[in-house]
Amino acid sequence: MSREKEVFDDIEGLVLKEARKTYSPRVIDHFLNPRNFGELKDPDCFNAMSGICGDTIGIYVGLDDSTVTRISFVTNGCGPTIACSSALTCMAKGLEIQEAMKITSNDLMEYLGGLPVEHTHCADLAVNTLRSALAKAG
């Protein structure tokens, strides 16, 4: 293994060790392995919103009748924003529009195992973006 690789692995290990002190395993997992990331081809609805911190989330939704069958996101945001967007797409997939619209920021944070108070706005942004996208359906 090269010296640069060893240094990189050491730094990555330290960053993850610190992250585990602040974030739940599920937040870290969704940040490191985001689900449903990328632009969705031929979405039935889409919306993008920016949050108070400057992060932007775009959510694409594909519907079969009124059921969310395809969903994806893009973001320029931080780790918690990526995790919230990823988790929310997992939560919404397979739901009827009206059920997906009922997902709250608290539901999302509970699903993720919590968020530090300084990042709860990331959950708000993700949920509001999904609701705005779904409001354009139909």
Description:
The structure is a single chain. With 138 residues, the chain is of the alpha+beta class. The protein has a single domain (3-135), classed as Sufe protein. Chain: A (Alpha-Beta Complex), CATH 3.90.1010.10. The chain contains six helices and three strands, in the order ααβββαααα. It has helices at 3-22, 25-32, 79-92, 97-101, 105-112, 120-135, and strands spanning 45-50, 56-64, 67-75. The chain has a three-stranded antiparallel β-sheet, with helices on one face. α2 (25-32) packs across α3, α3 crosses α5 (105-112) and α5 packs across α6. The longest helix has 20 residues, at 3-22. The radius of gyration is 16 Å and the shape is globular.
Q: Key terms for this structure?
A:
138 residues, Sufe protein. Chain: A
How many β strands by DSSP?
3
The third-level CATH topology is Sufe protein. Chain: A
The ordered string of helix (H) and strand (E) elements is HHEEEHHHH
What share of residues are in beta strands?
A: 15-25%
Strand order within the widest beta sheet: 1-2-3
**Uncertain stretches:** none
Number of domains: 1
Task: Give the rounded overall mean pLDDT.
Answer: 92
First CA to last CA: what distance? Answer: 55 Å
Backbone shape: globular
CATH class: Alpha Beta
Give me the CATH architecture, please. Alpha-Beta Complex
Please give the count of helices. 6
The whole-angstrom Rg is 16 Å
* Largest pleated sheet: 3 strands, antiparallel
What is the structural class? alpha+beta
Q: What percentage of residues falls in helices of 4 or more residues? A: 40-55%
